[in-house]
């Protein structure tokens, strides 16, 4: 789901690793929240972590990151994304807002920590509590992801 921003719009870049139907449900809930009809002036770009580039990051005004927990860390795909963009984007993105969601089977703590360290290095500003979901995806999980997407989008809209 990619939108071309019109003049005056702000861009929310969603960078995600979505390896399965349950994680797809979470992504869709995040995007639905970011597209909440009450939020105006925000173009949402959703890009898989393995396809997201330095220009994508530089052109955005805020970020949502989504990943599975893998071996107590973020997914290799999201790690590859950060490896790719970190130094080229350092300084350029300081202060921009972000949010994070993580899905795992039973323990997402290490994955969250791994992202937290990198976004701290980039000096991004966390504007919504990280959403951690373990196990099955139910309505409550989808709702939390919706709120996450909406909160970061509203932050951008209020710019
Ligand atoms: C190689 C591998 C490592 C994983 N490591 C973790 C982990 O450290 N913690 C955790 O909670 N889940 C872990 N998982 C589970 C994934 O996070 C989970 O499969 C993913 O979020 C997709 O969810 P689903 O399997 O319910 O579709 C791992 C899965 C794989 C394939």
From TrEMBL:
Protein name: NADPH-dependent FMN reductase-like domain-containing protein
Domain NADPH-dependent FMN reductase-like: 48-130
SUPFAM superfamilies with a match to the protein in the record: Flavoproteins
Annotated GO MF terms: oxidoreductase activity
Pfam families in alphabetical order: FMN_red
Organism: Rhodococcus tukisamuensis
Domain of life: Bacteria
């Amino acid at each position: 789901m990619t939108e071309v921003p019109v003049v005056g719009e702000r861009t929310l870049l969603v960078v995600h690793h979505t390896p399965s139907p349950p994680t797809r449900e979470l992504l869709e809930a995040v995007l639905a929240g970011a597209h909440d009809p009450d939020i105006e002036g925000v173009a949402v770009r959703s890009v898989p972590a393995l396809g997201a580039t330095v220009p994508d990051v530089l052109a955005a005004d805020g970020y949502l990151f989504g990943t599975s927990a893998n071996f107590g860390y973020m997914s290799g795909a999201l790690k590859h994304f950060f490896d790719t963009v970190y130094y080229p984007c350092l300084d350029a993105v300081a202060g921009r807002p972000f949010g994070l969601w993580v899905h795992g089977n039973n323990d997402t703590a290490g994955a969250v920590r791994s992202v937290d360290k990198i976004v701290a290095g980039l000096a991004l500003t966390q504007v919504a509590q990280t959403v951690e979901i373990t196990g099955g995806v139910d309505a409550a999980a989808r709702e939390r992801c919706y709120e996450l997407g909406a909160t970061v989008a509203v932050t951008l809209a209020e710019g």
